[in-house]
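User: I'm writing a tutorial on reading structure tokens. Could you give me a worked example: one chain, its sequence, then its tokens, then a sentence or two explaining what the tokens reveal?
Assistant: Sure. Here is the example chain.
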Amino acid sequence: MIGLAWGLAAVSLLVTVLSSTPMTRLFLGVATLLLLAAAGYGTYVRPRLSVDDAGLTVRTLGGAHPLPWHEVKVRLVTNRRLGRETPTLELDWQRGEDEQLFVLTRLDLGTDPRDVADVLHALRP
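And here are its predicted structure tokens:
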């Protein structure tokens, strides 16, 4: 998906440069910027989730967030959208008064969240 976004951004930039009307350049320029932002975000935050003996690490725009095993609850949540069930992986982290919820989808994980939840539960000490 990220490679597709980079490719579409390149094509959009080329078409923007080659277009003849200012209005077309404006709209295609905005589309190019959005595609570049999406591709850049996807590239920067990869991998979104990594696991080691100490716990989980979730990457966001704010950087990497290490989550020790004993401070995080892993849940698989299934939501119904447009007549289709969509699983998401929720990582609920809490340390004292600080807490944060990370919601990861299939697009974030690169695979089915159910499979990731099974692996995480198996790896948890």
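What the tokens reveal: The mean pLDDT is 92. Strands lie at 49-51, 55-60, 63-68, 72-81, 84-95, 98-104.
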